[in-house]
Amino acid sequence: MGGHFADNLLEAIEQKGAPVCVGLDPVFERLPAELRRGDDRQARAAAIREFCLAVLEAVAPIVPAVKPQSACFEVYRQEGVAAYFDVVRSARRLGLLVVGDVKRGDIGSTAEAYAAGHLAGPEAPDAVTVSGYLGADGIRPFVDVCRREGKGLFVLVRTSNPSAGQVQDFAGPEGGRLYEHMARLVAEAGAGEGLLGRRGYSCVGAVVGATWPREARRLREIMPRQLFLVPGYGAQGATAADCAAAFKPDGTGALVNASRSVIYAFQQDRRSGTDWTDAVRQAAEDFARDLSQALGC
Amino acid sequence: MGGHFADNLLEAIEQKGAPVCVGLDPVFERLPAELRRGDDRQARAAAIREFCLAVLEAVAPIVPAVKPQSACFEVYRQEGVAAYFDVVRSARRLGLLVVGDVKRGDIGSTAEAYAAGHLAGPEAPDAVTVSGYLGADGIRPFVDVCRREGKGLFVLVRTSNPSAGQVQDFAGPEGGRLYEHMARLVAEAGAGEGLLGRRGYSCVGAVVGATWPREARRLREIMPRQLFLVPGYGAQGATAADCAAAFKPDGTGALVNASRSVIYAFQQDRRSGTDWTDAVRQAAEDFARDLSQALGC
Protein backbone atom coordinates (compact mmCIF):
# COMPACT_ATOMS: atom_id res chain seq x y z
CA MET A 1 0.00 0.00 0.00
CA GLY A 2 2.94 2.35 0.71
CA GLY A 3 2.51 5.81 2.21
CA HIS A 4 2.11 6.18 5.96
CA PHE A 5 0.18 3.75 8.15
CA ALA A 6 -1.77 6.41 10.07
CA ASP A 7 -2.77 8.22 6.86
CA ASN A 8 -3.78 4.95 5.23
CA LEU A 9 -5.86 3.95 8.24
CA LEU A 10 -7.62 7.32 8.54
CA GLU A 11 -8.43 7.23 4.83
CA ALA A 12 -9.76 3.67 5.04
CA ILE A 13 -11.91 4.63 8.04
CA GLU A 14 -13.41 7.56 6.14
CA GLN A 15 -14.06 5.40 3.10
CA LYS A 16 -15.90 2.72 5.10
CA GLY A 17 -17.55 5.23 7.44
CA ALA A 18 -16.63 3.67 10.80
CA PRO A 19 -13.44 3.30 12.88
CA VAL A 20 -13.87 -0.41 13.44
CA CYS A 21 -11.72 -3.49 13.20
CA VAL A 22 -12.79 -7.13 13.21
CA GLY A 23 -10.57 -9.38 15.31
CA LEU A 24 -9.89 -12.80 13.84
CA ASP A 25 -9.55 -15.12 16.85
CA PRO A 26 -10.47 -18.47 15.29
CA VAL A 27 -11.02 -21.31 17.75
CA PHE A 28 -11.61 -24.70 16.12
CA GLU A 29 -14.31 -25.82 18.57
CA ARG A 30 -16.40 -22.73 17.84
CA LEU A 31 -16.36 -22.96 14.03
CA PRO A 32 -19.46 -23.85 12.02
CA ALA A 33 -19.82 -27.67 11.94
CA GLU A 34 -19.44 -27.75 8.15
CA LEU A 35 -15.84 -26.49 8.49
CA ARG A 36 -14.77 -28.97 11.16
CA ARG A 37 -13.61 -31.84 8.97
CA GLY A 38 -10.86 -33.96 10.53
CA ASP A 39 -9.25 -33.35 13.85
CA ASP A 40 -5.46 -33.39 13.52
CA ARG A 41 -3.26 -30.31 13.42
CA GLN A 42 -3.35 -30.01 9.63
CA ALA A 43 -7.13 -30.31 9.49
CA ARG A 44 -7.62 -27.80 12.28
CA ALA A 45 -5.25 -25.29 10.70
CA ALA A 46 -7.05 -25.74 7.37
CA ALA A 47 -10.41 -25.17 9.08
CA ILE A 48 -9.43 -21.93 10.84
CA ARG A 49 -7.89 -20.70 7.57
CA GLU A 50 -11.08 -21.43 5.62
CA PHE A 51 -13.17 -19.79 8.36
CA CYS A 52 -11.07 -16.62 8.38
CA LEU A 53 -11.06 -16.33 4.58
CA ALA A 54 -14.88 -16.50 4.59
CA VAL A 55 -15.07 -13.91 7.39
CA LEU A 56 -12.78 -11.62 5.38
CA GLU A 57 -15.07 -11.83 2.32
CA ALA A 58 -18.08 -11.05 4.52
CA VAL A 59 -16.61 -8.03 6.32
CA ALA A 60 -14.33 -6.47 3.68
CA PRO A 61 -17.04 -4.18 2.25
CA ILE A 62 -17.94 -2.93 5.74
CA VAL A 63 -14.80 -2.44 7.87
CA PRO A 64 -11.43 -0.78 7.19
CA ALA A 65 -9.26 -3.22 9.13
CA VAL A 66 -8.91 -6.70 10.61
CA LYS A 67 -6.77 -7.99 13.47
CA PRO A 68 -5.72 -11.63 13.24
CA GLN A 69 -4.74 -13.06 16.65
CA SER A 70 -1.44 -14.88 16.17
CA ALA A 71 -1.91 -17.16 19.20
CA CYS A 72 -4.96 -18.83 17.62
CA PHE A 73 -2.81 -19.80 14.64
CA GLU A 74 0.42 -20.62 16.52
CA VAL A 75 -1.37 -23.30 18.49
CA TYR A 76 -1.21 -25.33 15.25
CA ARG A 77 2.53 -24.70 14.84
CA GLN A 78 3.91 -24.51 11.30
CA GLU A 79 0.56 -25.33 9.70
CA GLY A 80 -1.05 -22.58 11.76
CA VAL A 81 1.64 -20.03 10.91
CA ALA A 82 1.23 -20.80 7.20
CA ALA A 83 -2.53 -20.22 7.64
CA TYR A 84 -1.89 -16.93 9.47
CA PHE A 85 0.15 -15.52 6.60
CA ASP A 86 -2.42 -16.78 4.07
CA VAL A 87 -5.06 -14.83 5.99
CA VAL A 88 -2.86 -11.71 6.11
CA ARG A 89 -2.25 -11.93 2.36
CA SER A 90 -5.94 -12.42 1.53
CA ALA A 91 -6.97 -9.54 3.75
CA ARG A 92 -4.56 -7.17 2.05
CA ARG A 93 -5.73 -8.38 -1.36
CA LEU A 94 -9.29 -7.44 -0.32
CA GLY A 95 -8.10 -3.92 0.51
CA LEU A 96 -8.23 -4.36 4.27
CA LEU A 97 -5.56 -2.98 6.58
CA VAL A 98 -4.15 -5.74 8.77
CA VAL A 99 -3.04 -5.41 12.38
CA GLY A 100 -1.14 -8.55 13.41
CA ASP A 101 -1.90 -9.13 17.09
CA VAL A 102 1.41 -10.68 18.14
CA LYS A 103 2.27 -8.68 21.31
CA ARG A 104 5.95 -9.50 20.86
CA GLY A 105 8.47 -7.90 23.18
CA ASP A 106 12.20 -8.50 23.12
CA ILE A 107 15.44 -6.59 22.62
CA GLY A 108 18.20 -5.82 20.13
CA SER A 109 18.76 -8.41 17.45
CA THR A 110 15.86 -10.50 18.76
CA ALA A 111 13.42 -7.62 18.37
CA GLU A 112 14.89 -7.06 14.91
CA ALA A 113 14.10 -10.66 14.02
CA TYR A 114 10.51 -10.26 15.23
CA ALA A 115 10.15 -7.03 13.27
CA ALA A 116 11.56 -8.72 10.15
CA GLY A 117 9.31 -11.75 10.50
CA HIS A 118 6.07 -10.08 11.54
CA LEU A 119 6.07 -6.54 10.13
CA ALA A 120 8.56 -6.06 7.26
CA GLY A 121 7.73 -6.72 3.63
CA PRO A 122 4.58 -6.90 1.51
CA GLU A 123 3.50 -10.30 2.87
CA ALA A 124 3.45 -9.14 6.51
CA PRO A 125 0.70 -7.17 8.27
CA ASP A 126 0.43 -3.34 7.99
CA ALA A 127 0.92 -3.02 11.73
CA VAL A 128 1.56 -5.18 14.81
CA THR A 129 1.00 -4.99 18.54
CA VAL A 130 4.10 -5.03 20.79
CA SER A 131 4.90 -5.02 24.51
CA GLY A 132 6.92 -2.14 25.95
CA TYR A 133 8.01 -3.78 29.23
CA LEU A 134 11.63 -3.94 28.05
CA GLY A 135 11.85 -0.22 27.32
CA ALA A 136 12.83 1.60 24.13
CA ASP A 137 15.27 -1.18 23.07
CA GLY A 138 12.30 -3.40 22.43
CA ILE A 139 10.36 -0.92 20.32
CA ARG A 140 13.07 0.67 18.19
CA PRO A 141 13.52 -2.16 15.64
CA PHE A 142 9.79 -2.06 14.92
CA VAL A 143 9.83 1.73 14.60
CA ASP A 144 12.65 1.41 12.06
CA VAL A 145 10.49 -0.86 9.88
CA CYS A 146 7.57 1.59 10.23
CA ARG A 147 9.71 4.51 9.06
CA ARG A 148 11.18 2.58 6.16
CA GLU A 149 8.05 0.85 4.91
CA GLY A 150 5.13 3.02 5.99
CA LYS A 151 3.95 0.45 8.50
CA GLY A 152 2.50 0.86 12.00
CA LEU A 153 2.82 -0.24 15.59
CA PHE A 154 0.53 -0.38 18.64
CA VAL A 155 2.33 -0.56 21.99
CA LEU A 156 0.47 -2.08 24.96
CA VAL A 157 -0.36 0.75 27.35
CA ARG A 158 -3.63 -0.06 29.15
CA THR A 159 -5.06 -3.44 28.24
CA SER A 160 -8.73 -4.41 28.49
CA ASN A 161 -8.49 -7.44 30.80
CA PRO A 162 -9.68 -7.55 34.45
CA SER A 163 -6.18 -7.92 35.99
CA ALA A 164 -4.58 -5.20 33.81
CA GLY A 165 -4.42 -2.85 36.77
CA GLN A 166 -2.29 -5.20 38.88
CA VAL A 167 0.76 -4.06 36.94
CA GLN A 168 -0.35 -1.13 34.78
CA ASP A 169 -1.86 0.88 37.67
CA PHE A 170 1.33 0.63 39.74
CA ALA A 171 1.50 4.10 41.30
CA GLY A 172 4.50 6.38 40.99
CA PRO A 173 5.77 8.98 43.49
CA GLU A 174 3.25 11.73 42.71
CA GLY A 175 0.38 9.33 42.17
CA GLY A 176 1.12 8.95 38.45
CA ARG A 177 0.49 5.46 37.18
CA LEU A 178 2.70 3.09 35.23
CA TYR A 179 0.34 3.21 32.25
CA GLU A 180 0.79 6.99 32.08
CA HIS A 181 4.55 6.54 32.21
CA MET A 182 4.32 3.96 29.42
CA ALA A 183 2.16 6.41 27.45
CA ARG A 184 4.86 9.07 27.67
CA LEU A 185 7.46 6.58 26.42
CA VAL A 186 5.17 5.70 23.50
CA ALA A 187 4.58 9.38 22.67
CA GLU A 188 8.34 9.92 22.70
CA ALA A 189 9.07 6.83 20.59
CA GLY A 190 6.51 8.04 18.06
CA ALA A 191 7.81 11.58 17.77
CA GLY A 192 11.05 10.89 15.85
CA GLU A 193 11.85 12.18 12.40
CA GLY A 194 9.78 10.73 9.59
CA LEU A 195 7.21 9.16 11.90
CA LEU A 196 4.33 11.64 11.61
CA GLY A 197 1.85 11.36 8.77
CA ARG A 198 0.16 14.18 6.86
CA ARG A 199 -2.77 14.15 9.27
CA GLY A 200 -0.61 14.65 12.36
CA TYR A 201 -0.78 11.10 13.68
CA SER A 202 2.33 9.01 14.32
CA CYS A 203 2.85 5.50 12.96
CA VAL A 204 3.50 4.49 16.59
CA GLY A 205 0.14 3.99 18.30
CA ALA A 206 -1.07 2.50 21.57
CA VAL A 207 -3.36 -0.27 22.80
CA VAL A 208 -5.92 1.27 25.17
CA GLY A 209 -8.76 -0.96 26.38
CA ALA A 210 -12.36 0.22 25.97
CA THR A 211 -13.15 -1.24 29.37
CA TRP A 212 -11.40 1.71 31.08
CA PRO A 213 -12.93 4.96 29.71
CA ARG A 214 -11.56 7.14 32.52
CA GLU A 215 -8.01 5.97 31.82
CA ALA A 216 -8.61 6.38 28.08
CA ARG A 217 -9.51 10.06 28.49
CA ARG A 218 -6.31 10.63 30.47
CA LEU A 219 -4.26 8.75 27.86
CA ARG A 220 -5.82 10.78 25.04
CA GLU A 221 -4.27 13.87 26.70
CA ILE A 222 -0.80 12.31 27.10
CA MET A 223 -0.72 10.87 23.58
CA PRO A 224 -2.28 13.45 21.21
CA ARG A 225 -0.43 12.05 18.19
CA GLN A 226 -1.11 8.37 18.82
CA LEU A 227 -3.76 6.27 17.18
CA PHE A 228 -5.41 4.03 19.79
CA LEU A 229 -6.23 0.43 19.06
CA VAL A 230 -9.19 -0.18 21.37
CA PRO A 231 -10.05 -3.77 22.38
CA GLY A 232 -12.85 -4.72 24.76
CA TYR A 233 -16.04 -3.80 22.84
CA GLY A 234 -18.75 -6.47 22.74
CA ALA A 235 -17.85 -9.80 24.33
CA GLN A 236 -15.60 -8.07 26.90
CA GLY A 237 -18.42 -5.76 27.98
CA ALA A 238 -17.54 -2.24 26.77
CA THR A 239 -20.17 -0.21 24.91
CA ALA A 240 -19.74 2.20 22.00
CA ALA A 241 -20.14 5.06 24.49
CA ASP A 242 -17.21 3.67 26.53
CA CYS A 243 -15.13 3.57 23.35
CA ALA A 244 -15.83 7.23 22.59
CA ALA A 245 -13.36 8.24 25.33
CA ALA A 246 -10.49 7.05 23.15
CA PHE A 247 -11.36 9.46 20.32
CA LYS A 248 -10.64 13.16 19.84
CA PRO A 249 -13.56 15.62 19.61
CA ASP A 250 -13.29 15.49 15.80
CA GLY A 251 -14.06 11.76 15.88
CA THR A 252 -10.59 10.60 14.81
CA GLY A 253 -7.79 8.95 16.72
CA ALA A 254 -8.93 5.42 17.45
CA LEU A 255 -9.81 2.07 15.93
CA VAL A 256 -12.22 -0.07 17.95
CA ASN A 257 -11.86 -3.83 17.74
CA ALA A 258 -14.51 -6.49 18.21
CA SER A 259 -13.67 -10.15 17.79
CA ARG A 260 -15.99 -12.77 19.21
CA SER A 261 -19.19 -10.69 19.01
CA VAL A 262 -18.71 -10.47 15.23
CA ILE A 263 -16.99 -13.65 14.06
CA TYR A 264 -19.18 -15.94 16.19
CA ALA A 265 -22.39 -13.98 15.53
CA PHE A 266 -23.93 -17.10 13.97
CA GLN A 267 -24.08 -18.61 17.49
CA GLN A 268 -26.26 -15.80 18.84
CA ASP A 269 -29.91 -16.77 19.40
CA ARG A 270 -31.23 -13.69 17.62
CA ARG A 271 -29.38 -14.68 14.44
CA SER A 272 -30.36 -18.37 14.43
CA GLY A 273 -31.60 -19.61 11.10
CA THR A 274 -29.32 -17.21 9.24
CA ASP A 275 -26.50 -18.51 7.06
CA TRP A 276 -23.33 -18.18 9.16
CA THR A 277 -21.53 -15.76 6.84
CA ASP A 278 -24.67 -13.60 6.64
CA ALA A 279 -24.77 -13.51 10.45
CA VAL A 280 -21.14 -12.37 10.52
CA ARG A 281 -21.83 -9.66 7.92
CA GLN A 282 -24.88 -8.41 9.83
CA ALA A 283 -22.90 -8.31 13.07
CA ALA A 284 -20.14 -6.31 11.38
CA GLU A 285 -22.76 -3.89 10.03
CA ASP A 286 -24.35 -3.53 13.48
CA PHE A 287 -20.91 -2.97 15.03
CA ALA A 288 -20.01 -0.27 12.48
CA ARG A 289 -23.39 1.45 12.86
CA ASP A 290 -23.21 1.35 16.66
CA LEU A 291 -19.80 3.03 16.65
CA SER A 292 -20.54 5.66 14.05
CA GLN A 293 -23.76 6.62 15.88
CA ALA A 294 -21.96 6.89 19.24
CA LEU A 295 -19.33 9.13 17.64
CA GLY A 296 -21.90 11.14 15.74
CA CYS A 297 -20.23 10.57 12.39
CA MET B 1 10.31 -36.23 31.46
CA GLY B 2 7.43 -35.83 33.96
CA GLY B 3 7.93 -34.84 37.59
CA HIS B 4 8.37 -31.18 38.46
CA PHE B 5 10.30 -28.70 36.34
CA ALA B 6 12.31 -27.18 39.20
CA ASP B 7 13.28 -30.62 40.55
CA ASN B 8 14.24 -31.79 37.07
CA LEU B 9 16.34 -28.69 36.47
CA LEU B 10 18.14 -28.88 39.82
CA GLU B 11 18.89 -32.54 39.21
CA ALA B 12 20.21 -31.88 35.71
CA ILE B 13 22.40 -29.04 37.03
CA GLU B 14 23.90 -31.36 39.65
CA GLN B 15 24.49 -34.07 37.10
CA LYS B 16 26.30 -31.73 34.70
CA GLY B 17 28.03 -29.79 37.48
CA ALA B 18 27.15 -26.24 36.40
CA PRO B 19 23.97 -24.10 36.36
CA VAL B 20 24.37 -23.04 32.75
CA CYS B 21 22.17 -22.83 29.69
CA VAL B 22 23.21 -22.34 26.07
CA GLY B 23 21.01 -19.94 24.15
CA LEU B 24 20.25 -20.93 20.56
CA ASP B 25 19.93 -17.62 18.69
CA PRO B 26 20.79 -18.71 15.16
CA VAL B 27 21.34 -15.88 12.66
CA PHE B 28 21.88 -17.06 9.09
CA GLU B 29 24.58 -14.51 8.26
CA ARG B 30 26.71 -15.67 11.20
CA LEU B 31 26.60 -19.39 10.45
CA PRO B 32 29.68 -21.32 9.26
CA ALA B 33 29.99 -20.89 5.47
CA GLU B 34 29.55 -24.63 4.88
CA LEU B 35 25.98 -24.42 6.21
CA ARG B 36 24.92 -21.42 4.14
CA ARG B 37 23.70 -23.18 1.03
CA GLY B 38 20.93 -21.34 -0.82
CA ASP B 39 19.36 -18.10 0.26
CA ASP B 40 15.58 -18.38 0.22
CA ARG B 41 13.41 -18.86 3.29
CA GLN B 42 13.44 -22.66 3.05
CA ALA B 43 17.24 -22.80 2.69
CA ARG B 44 17.80 -20.39 5.55
CA ALA B 45 15.43 -22.28 7.86
CA ALA B 46 17.19 -25.54 6.93
CA ALA B 47 20.58 -23.94 7.67
CA ILE B 48 19.65 -22.64 11.14
CA ARG B 49 18.09 -26.03 11.92
CA GLU B 50 21.25 -27.89 10.91
CA PHE B 51 23.39 -25.43 12.86
CA CYS B 52 21.32 -25.82 16.03
CA LEU B 53 21.28 -29.62 15.81
CA ALA B 54 25.09 -29.62 15.59
CA VAL B 55 25.34 -27.20 18.53
CA LEU B 56 23.05 -29.48 20.55
CA GLU B 57 25.31 -32.50 19.90
CA ALA B 58 28.34 -30.45 20.95
CA VAL B 59 26.93 -29.06 24.20
CA ALA B 60 24.64 -31.87 25.39
CA PRO B 61 27.35 -33.63 27.45
CA ILE B 62 28.29 -30.34 29.15
CA VAL B 63 25.21 -28.27 29.97
CA PRO B 64 21.85 -29.16 31.57
CA ALA B 65 19.68 -26.88 29.44
CA VAL B 66 19.30 -24.94 26.20
CA LYS B 67 17.17 -21.92 25.34
CA PRO B 68 16.09 -21.63 21.71
CA GLN B 69 15.14 -18.06 20.78
CA SER B 70 11.82 -18.23 18.96
CA ALA B 71 12.30 -14.93 17.10
CA CYS B 72 15.31 -16.31 15.18
CA PHE B 73 13.11 -19.10 13.85
CA GLU B 74 9.89 -17.10 13.35
CA VAL B 75 11.68 -14.80 10.93
CA TYR B 76 11.45 -17.73 8.48
CA ARG B 77 7.70 -18.17 9.11
CA GLN B 78 6.28 -21.70 8.84
CA GLU B 79 9.62 -23.20 7.75
CA GLY B 80 11.28 -21.56 10.74
CA VAL B 81 8.60 -22.72 13.17
CA ALA B 82 8.98 -26.28 11.90
CA ALA B 83 12.75 -25.97 12.49
CA TYR B 84 12.15 -24.60 16.01
CA PHE B 85 10.09 -27.61 17.02
CA ASP B 86 12.63 -29.98 15.41
CA VAL B 87 15.31 -28.37 17.56
CA VAL B 88 13.14 -28.64 20.70
CA ARG B 89 12.50 -32.32 19.97
CA SER B 90 16.17 -33.10 19.33
CA ALA B 91 17.26 -31.31 22.48
CA ARG B 92 14.85 -33.30 24.62
CA ARG B 93 15.96 -36.53 22.94
CA LEU B 94 19.54 -35.66 23.97
CA GLY B 95 18.40 -35.32 27.58
CA LEU B 96 18.57 -31.52 27.65
CA LEU B 97 15.96 -29.40 29.37
CA VAL B 98 14.53 -26.85 26.95
CA VAL B 99 13.46 -23.30 27.79
CA GLY B 100 11.54 -21.84 24.85
CA ASP B 101 12.34 -18.13 24.77
CA VAL B 102 9.03 -16.84 23.43
CA LYS B 103 8.23 -13.97 25.83
CA ARG B 104 4.53 -14.26 25.03
CA GLY B 105 2.07 -12.16 26.95
CA ASP B 106 -1.68 -12.08 26.40
CA ILE B 107 -4.90 -12.81 28.25
CA GLY B 108 -7.68 -15.33 28.71
CA SER B 109 -8.31 -17.63 25.79
CA THR B 110 -5.41 -16.08 23.86
CA ALA B 111 -2.94 -16.88 26.62
CA GLU B 112 -4.46 -20.38 26.73
CA ALA B 113 -3.70 -20.77 23.03
CA TYR B 114 -0.09 -19.66 23.54
CA ALA B 115 0.28 -22.06 26.48
CA ALA B 116 -1.19 -24.89 24.40
CA GLY B 117 1.03 -24.16 21.41
CA HIS B 118 4.30 -23.41 23.17
CA LEU B 119 4.30 -25.28 26.49
CA ALA B 120 1.81 -28.16 26.60
CA GLY B 121 2.58 -31.67 25.45
CA PRO B 122 5.70 -33.78 24.94
CA GLU B 123 6.76 -31.98 21.75
CA ALA B 124 6.88 -28.52 23.37
CA PRO B 125 9.67 -27.08 25.55
CA ASP B 126 9.96 -27.90 29.27
CA ALA B 127 9.54 -24.23 30.12
CA VAL B 128 8.91 -20.88 28.41
CA THR B 129 9.50 -17.21 29.11
CA VAL B 130 6.44 -14.94 29.41
CA SER B 131 5.68 -11.26 29.93
CA GLY B 132 3.71 -10.21 33.00
CA TYR B 133 2.64 -6.70 31.84
CA LEU B 134 -1.00 -7.81 31.56
CA GLY B 135 -1.19 -9.04 35.16
CA ALA B 136 -2.19 -12.44 36.54
CA ASP B 137 -4.68 -13.07 33.68
CA GLY B 138 -1.73 -13.45 31.35
CA ILE B 139 0.21 -15.91 33.48
CA ARG B 140 -2.51 -18.20 34.80
CA PRO B 141 -3.03 -20.35 31.67
CA PHE B 142 0.72 -21.10 31.62
CA VAL B 143 0.71 -21.94 35.33
CA ASP B 144 -2.16 -24.38 34.71
CA VAL B 145 -0.05 -26.25 32.15
CA CYS B 146 2.91 -26.28 34.58
CA ARG B 147 0.80 -27.81 37.33
CA ARG B 148 -0.73 -30.40 35.05
CA GLU B 149 2.36 -31.44 33.12
CA GLY B 150 5.33 -30.70 35.39
CA LYS B 151 6.50 -27.87 33.16
CA GLY B 152 8.00 -24.48 34.03
CA LEU B 153 7.71 -20.76 33.44
CA PHE B 154 10.03 -17.76 33.68
CA VAL B 155 8.25 -14.39 33.98
CA LEU B 156 10.15 -11.27 32.85
CA VAL B 157 11.03 -9.28 35.97
CA ARG B 158 14.31 -7.43 35.37
CA THR B 159 15.70 -7.87 31.86
CA SER B 160 19.36 -7.54 30.90
CA ASN B 161 19.12 -4.82 28.22
CA PRO B 162 20.34 -1.20 28.59
CA SER B 163 16.86 0.41 28.48
CA ALA B 164 15.27 -2.11 30.89
CA GLY B 165 15.18 0.51 33.65
CA GLN B 166 13.04 2.95 31.62
CA VAL B 167 9.99 0.88 32.52
CA GLN B 168 11.09 -1.66 35.12
CA ASP B 169 12.65 0.91 37.49
CA PHE B 170 9.50 3.04 37.57
CA ALA B 171 9.40 4.10 41.22
CA GLY B 172 6.41 3.57 43.48
CA PRO B 173 5.25 5.78 46.37
CA GLU B 174 7.75 4.49 48.97
CA GLY B 175 10.59 4.24 46.51
CA GLY B 176 9.78 0.63 45.64
CA ARG B 177 10.35 -0.18 41.99
CA LEU B 178 8.09 -1.76 39.39
CA TYR B 179 10.42 -4.76 39.05
CA GLU B 180 10.01 -5.43 42.80
CA HIS B 181 6.23 -5.19 42.42
CA MET B 182 6.41 -7.62 39.49
CA ALA B 183 8.58 -9.93 41.61
CA ARG B 184 5.90 -10.04 44.31
CA LEU B 185 3.27 -10.92 41.70
CA VAL B 186 5.50 -13.71 40.42
CA ALA B 187 6.13 -15.05 43.94
CA GLU B 188 2.37 -15.06 44.52
CA ALA B 189 1.59 -16.72 41.18
CA GLY B 190 4.14 -19.41 42.00
CA ALA B 191 2.86 -20.17 45.50
CA GLY B 192 -0.39 -21.92 44.60
CA GLU B 193 -1.24 -25.52 45.40
CA GLY B 194 0.79 -28.13 43.55
CA LEU B 195 3.37 -25.66 42.27
CA LEU B 196 6.28 -26.31 44.65
CA GLY B 197 8.73 -29.11 43.96
CA ARG B 198 10.42 -31.42 46.48
CA ARG B 199 13.37 -29.04 46.74
CA GLY B 200 11.26 -26.04 47.69
CA TYR B 201 11.40 -24.24 44.35
CA SER B 202 8.28 -23.29 42.40
CA CYS B 203 7.72 -24.14 38.74
CA VAL B 204 7.10 -20.41 38.25
CA GLY B 205 10.48 -18.68 37.94
CA ALA B 206 11.69 -15.25 36.90
CA VAL B 207 13.97 -13.69 34.30
CA VAL B 208 16.56 -11.57 36.11
CA GLY B 209 19.39 -10.09 34.03
CA ALA B 210 23.00 -10.71 35.10
CA THR B 211 23.84 -7.13 34.11
CA TRP B 212 22.11 -5.83 37.28
CA PRO B 213 23.66 -7.65 40.31
CA ARG B 214 22.34 -5.14 42.87
CA GLU B 215 18.78 -5.64 41.63
CA ALA B 216 19.34 -9.40 41.52
CA ARG B 217 20.27 -9.50 45.21
CA ARG B 218 17.10 -7.60 46.11
CA LEU B 219 15.01 -9.89 43.91
CA ARG B 220 16.56 -12.99 45.50
CA GLU B 221 15.06 -11.75 48.80
CA ILE B 222 11.59 -11.10 47.37
CA MET B 223 11.45 -14.40 45.46
CA PRO B 224 13.00 -17.11 47.67
CA ARG B 225 11.11 -19.91 45.91
CA GLN B 226 11.75 -18.78 42.34
CA LEU B 227 14.37 -20.16 40.00
CA PHE B 228 16.02 -17.28 38.13
CA LEU B 229 16.81 -17.50 34.44
CA VAL B 230 19.78 -15.15 34.11
CA PRO B 231 20.62 -13.68 30.69
CA GLY B 232 23.43 -11.21 30.04
CA TYR B 233 26.59 -13.27 30.62
CA GLY B 234 29.27 -13.05 27.93
CA ALA B 235 28.36 -11.01 24.86
CA GLN B 236 26.15 -8.68 26.95
CA GLY B 237 29.02 -7.96 29.36
CA ALA B 238 28.15 -9.61 32.68
CA THR B 239 30.79 -11.76 34.42
CA ALA B 240 30.36 -14.96 36.42
CA ALA B 241 30.81 -12.88 39.59
CA ASP B 242 27.89 -10.65 38.52
CA CYS B 243 25.77 -13.77 38.01
CA ALA B 244 26.51 -15.02 41.52
CA ALA B 245 24.09 -12.42 42.94
CA ALA B 246 21.18 -14.41 41.50
CA PHE B 247 22.03 -17.55 43.50
CA LYS B 248 21.35 -18.51 47.11
CA PRO B 249 24.28 -19.11 49.46
CA ASP B 250 23.98 -22.86 48.82
CA GLY B 251 24.71 -22.29 45.13
CA THR B 252 21.21 -23.17 43.89
CA GLY B 253 18.40 -21.02 42.54
CA ALA B 254 19.53 -19.82 39.12
CA LEU B 255 20.36 -20.87 35.59
CA VAL B 256 22.77 -18.60 33.71
CA ASN B 257 22.35 -18.29 29.97
CA ALA B 258 24.99 -17.50 27.36
CA SER B 259 24.10 -17.41 23.69
CA ARG B 260 26.41 -15.65 21.25
CA SER B 261 29.64 -16.18 23.25
CA VAL B 262 29.11 -19.94 22.96
CA ILE B 263 27.34 -20.66 19.67
CA TYR B 264 29.53 -18.25 17.66
CA ALA B 265 32.77 -19.22 19.48
CA PHE B 266 34.26 -20.32 16.15
CA GLN B 267 34.42 -16.65 15.11
CA GLN B 268 36.66 -15.70 18.06
CA ASP B 269 40.28 -15.06 17.13
CA ARG B 270 41.59 -17.25 19.91
CA ARG B 271 39.72 -20.24 18.53
CA SER B 272 40.61 -19.78 14.86
CA GLY B 273 41.83 -22.92 13.16
CA THR B 274 39.57 -25.07 15.32
CA ASP B 275 36.71 -27.03 13.78
CA TRP B 276 33.58 -24.96 14.44
CA THR B 277 31.77 -27.56 16.54
CA ASP B 278 34.94 -28.08 18.61
CA ALA B 279 35.08 -24.33 19.21
CA VAL B 280 31.46 -24.37 20.41
CA ARG B 281 32.16 -27.32 22.71
CA GLN B 282 35.24 -25.64 24.17
CA ALA B 283 33.31 -22.41 24.75
CA ALA B 284 30.55 -24.33 26.54
CA GLU B 285 33.19 -26.03 28.73
CA ASP B 286 34.81 -22.67 29.53
CA PHE B 287 31.39 -21.18 30.34
CA ALA B 288 30.48 -24.08 32.68
CA ARG B 289 33.89 -23.96 34.40
CA ASP B 290 33.76 -20.17 34.81
CA LEU B 291 30.37 -20.37 36.51
CA SER B 292 31.10 -23.32 38.77
CA GLN B 293 34.35 -21.67 39.93
CA ALA B 294 32.60 -18.37 40.67
CA LEU B 295 29.95 -20.21 42.70
CA GLY B 296 32.52 -22.40 44.42
CA CYS B 297 30.80 -25.63 43.42
Structure, described:
The structure is a homodimer of 297-residue chains. Chain A is an alpha/beta fold and 297 residues long. Chain A has one domain: Alpha-Beta Barrel (TIM Barrel), CATH 3.20.20. Chain A is 45% helix and 14% strand. Chain A has helices at residues 5-16, 41-59, 70-74, 77-93, 108-118, 136-149, 164-168, 178-189, 213-222, 240-243, 260-263, 276-295; strands at residues 20-24, 65-68, 97-104, 127-130, 152-158, 204-208, 228-230, 254-258. The first copy, chain A, has an eight-stranded parallel β-barrel with strand order 1-2-3-4-5-6-7-8, surrounded by eight helices. In chain A, helix 2 runs parallel beside helix 4 and helix 5 runs parallel beside helix 6 (136-149). The longest helix of chain A has 20 residues, at 276-295. The first copy, chain A, is globular and about 55 Å long. The mean pLDDT of chain A is 95.
